[in-house]
Structure formats: C-alpha cells, structure tokens
Design brief:
309 residues; alpha/beta; Spore Coat Polysaccharide Biosynthesis Protein SpsA, Chain A; globular
C-alpha cells in the first residue's frame, strides 16, 4: 500500500490526491519545490484512477521532490481519496493538503509553521487566497475581504476554508485520526471542524496561494457552465443528503468536553433535523448561524427546511 519509508524525520507531509491533473499539476509541483521553508518536505500522493499523463508528470519530478505513493487504483472521489491518504499518512511534525491545480506562494509553508511552532496543543493554520482562472490570471486578489467567523457552526453551515489552505500539527492530526469518524462530506471539513471544536485555529489574512477556478474544479462553481453548476448543486443537495447532520452528531460526541454551550445546542439541533420539522425551523432561526458567506447561509437554510442537510 504505502511504499517503504526509511526516513523518519519528515517535517512537513503534504497530502495530494490526483485525478486527470495533467493541465495544471506541473505548476503546483513547481510551487511546492520553490518553498523557502528549510525543513524536510515530503509529498504523499494517491492517484484516483487518472487516465491522462498525471502519473508520468509525477515521475518526472522524482529528482526535485521527495514523493511517496499510496498504491491503490480504486476511484474513490476526492473526499475519500484524501481521507485514505490522511488515515495512512506516515509520521510527521506538520501536515498539509494540496490540490493539483493551485499554486502556492513561496513563503506559504514557512509562514504556516512559524505560527504553528508557537502552539503546543492541537492547532491548525490557514490563510486567505487569491482566485485565478485556468490561464493563471488573477480574478480576485483576496477572497476573504474580512476575516471569517471561526466557529464550528459556521463551518458546518457553509464552510470556512479550503483544504489546500490548511497546515496543521501532529497533535491535531493524531486527535482526528484516533476518532472513528464515519461521515466524510469532505476531508477538510473533518479536520477543520475538529480543530475548531477541540483545538486552536490560526488565520492569516494575507493571500498565500492561488486557488484556481475552472470547469473541472470539484468544489468551486466559478468558471463552470450552467449544466456543471446544476451538477455541483445536485451533488451538494441530494447525493450527500444528511451527511452534515450525521457529522454534527459525531462532532458533538467526540468533542463534548471542549465545546461551548451554544455550540452544543447548535449541534444537537443540527443532528436532529431529519427527525422533526420543528427542529429544522428552530435551527434556521438560531443566532448561531453566522457567516460572511450570505449565499452559503441561504443555501443551508433551504436545504435544512427540505430535510437535505
């Protein structure tokens, strides 16, 4: 499964799930190779069944990047492919997720680890980012115009951070890994939610990477035509029905000793939404639903009322 690893001094393990990424992968690998962080960086890769030149591109980088592979040819989709990497990851001091089509600023890892190194408990760092199109042109120089609301409820309502923006320490990694988490809407949702619930989250408002929006992006709708947007909405609303409410129950159970009373009340209501219309109405009326993302809040409330959350 995981190739033999003889070195045990990994500073940063970067987890990358690839799938037909030949268009943009090389630019991302280039940006990782140019990081000015001086510790040992290892790229941990799982390919999700590519039928293009993705694997050949990775092979060309074997002399410039330390790459190890999780060998498994099954197509699992982005969330479970990343989660398989997460659960099988070798020991490291810090962990990060990376998307195959983004571009990191040279100082991204250094900034993250400078901040994380000052924390002794479970901690996660993430940054603001700029949006680029498929040609690399900047379409938004800073996605977050104001700092996001950092609460578990805000994360479950509409998400706060992309996985590719996160770097987290071994304490948080081990804490999440030790939990028997069954519901995985997305890999980054899990890690970020548990960091908010039981650890410390550090936000850097400076854009430290470029997030590429294009027609094949798994999450973003920008750059997609109407049919692709409908497909993305269908996946969010129907294919993953009740995943968030089930995850809310797990977060509550796993982190009850860390959560504030308001968050506990919110998670109890959210976990019961598929049982009662009264609870669904109480949930969407909760003052715990706070976020800078107005559209995300509206979507959450509609899905809640329709018993899709």
């Amino acid at each position: 499964m995981v190739e033999d690893i003889t070195e045990n001094d990994i500073e940063v393990l970067i987890m990358l799930s690839t799938y037909n990424g030949e268009k943009f992968l090389e630019q991302q690998l280039e940006s990782i190779s140019k990081q000015d962080y001086l510790g040992k960086i290892v790229l941990y890769v799982r390919d999700d069944g590519s039928n293009d030149n993705t694997l050949e591109i990775l092979k060309l980088w074997k002399d410039r990047l330390k790459i190890i592979y999780y060998n498994d040819e099954k197509n699992l989709g982005a969330a479970m492919s990343f989660w398989r990497l997460f659960l099988s990851a070798p020991k490291a001091k810090y962990y990060a997720f990376v998307d195959q089509d983004d571009v990191w600023d040279t100082n991204k890892l250094r900034k993250a680890i400078e901040a994380l190194s000052k924390r002794k408990s479970k901690a996660l760092w993430f940054s603001n980012y700029r949006l680029i199109d498929k040609f690399g042109n900047v379409v938004n120089d800073a996605y977050n115009k104001i700092p996001p609301v950092l609460t578990v409820s805000s994360q479950l309502v509409c998400g706060i951070a992309q996985g590719c923006s996160m770097v987290f320490n071994s304490e948080l990694y081990q804490y999440c890994k030790d939990k028997n988490i069954k519901y995985i809407p997305m890999h980054d949702t899990i890690v970020f939610s548990y960091a908010l619930a039981a650890g410390e989250v550090i936000y850097d408002n400076n854009p430290l990477f470029s997030y590429r929006v294009h027609e094949n992006n798994v999450v973003a709708k920008t750059g997609k035509n109407i049919n692709q947007k409908i497909k993305s909405t269908y996946s969010l609303w129907f294919k993953h029905r009740h995943e968030i409410s089930k995850l809310a129950g797990e977060i509550l159970e796993d982190n009850i000793n860390y959560l504030q009373e308001k968050e506990i009340d919110f998670l109890i209501l959210l976990s019961k939404t598929n049982k009662s219309i009264v609870d669904r109405i109480r949930l969407i009326s909760s003052d715990n639903i706070k976020s800078n993302y107005t559209r995300g809040v509206k979507s959450f409330k509609i899905r809640t009322l329709l018993d899709l959350i």
